[in-house]
Amino acid sequence: MTRIDTPPCLPVANRLESFWLTERDTELQYARTSQEIPHDADVVIVGSGLSGAMMSYHLHKDAEAAGRGLRVVMLEADEVCGSATARNGGHCKPVTFIGYRAEASKRGPEVANHLLTFEEAALGQYAAIVEAEKIECDMHVTRACDVFYREDDAESARSDWEARRAAFPADVQQGDVRIYDDAAEFEQLTGVQGGVFGASYPAGHLWPYKLATSLIRISMSHGMNLQSRTPATELSRAPDGRWIVATPRGDILAKSVVVTTNAYTSSFLPEFKPLIIPVRGTACSITPAPSHLPGSVPGPIKYTYGFRHGPGEVDYMIPRQGRGLVPGQGDRSIILGGAKGCFLHDIDQWYDNINDDVEMPGARAYFEGFMDKYFVGWNGNARGNVDHVWSGVLGYSSDLLPYVGEHPDRPGVFICAGFTGHGMPRIPGCTRALSSLARAFLDTTETIPKHSRAAFDAALPKPYLLSRERLESKENRIKDAMGQGAATKPDEATMLARAMEAKL
Ligand SMILES: Cc1cc2nc3c(=O)[nH]c(=O)nc-3n(C[C@H](O)[C@H](O)[C@H](O)COP(=O)(O)OP(=O)(O)OC[C@H]3O[C@@H](n4cnc5c(N)ncnc54)[C@H](O)[C@@H]3O)c2cc1C
Question: What superkingdom does the record give (predicted)?
Answer without folding.
Answer: Eukaryota
